[in-house]
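Hello, quick one for you while I still have it in my head. A protein chain has come my way and I'm curious about its shape. Can you walk me through what the tokens say about the fold? No rush at all, and the record is pasted right below.
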Amino acid sequence: MTSPAEPRLLRYQVVKDAVLSMIVEQDLQPGDRLPSTSELAALAGVSQISVRRALDELERAGRIQRHQGVGTFVATPRIFSDPGRSGGLLTTLGDADAKRGLQTELIRLRVGLPGATIAAALQILEGQPVWEVVRRRLMGGSPVIVERAVLPLHRVPALDERLLAAGGSLYSYLGEQYGIADDDEEQYLEVALPSTEERSLLDLSARERVVTIKGVSFDQSGVPFDCYQQTYPASRFAFYFSGSRERRLLTARDGEDWTVASMTGV
């Protein structure tokens, strides 16, 4: 029985492989400049059209960054998050280094009145007061996440401002002080333009998009106690989801190369 012939790489795939090899072999670091489109075309012996397609795919995969009129650069590796995992923000981050390097700023801690959507999600009346906690997370001094939590005041009479400002876990605090445990969550994810506040807090340009995860946390009795929102720069993060808490057939980084090569073509 004969095996099928090895598929021939398309020209843009040759360029992709060449760029990735260059990054590894030359030990290029985030922010290092890569050759220009014309230089890559000459190096790989292909057209600039093929180079542009290769760079498009590498940029979508988060491996490079292109700045018009400036050049092409090695991108900062994406941060992986597992938002389906119950618990505080730190438990959702898949990179141990990212967790260690996370800094926190408390942007807002106040008591207010919820809008109709939040009141319905928390199963309270619109006139019932709630806590609003807004924190900004930074890595290496750069803002990467805006985190917002809304909790009913009748269930959470007090919050520890110093603990929240220091980056402490809100869910651990709720468990220790009020016996509230995060037993289940409902959430949805969308890619959108950021609000004015999010753009400012995340230091984004006017055209950059964000990934927003909105959800509700439920206690052991199935009663909602937290209506939350987490906002991430779309270009900095990749997200991992699993329908099972036990089965882990994929790791987060298995998603970096999710392609099928054509067996023919140019």
User: Anything to note?
Assistant: The chain has two domains: 11-76, 79-242.
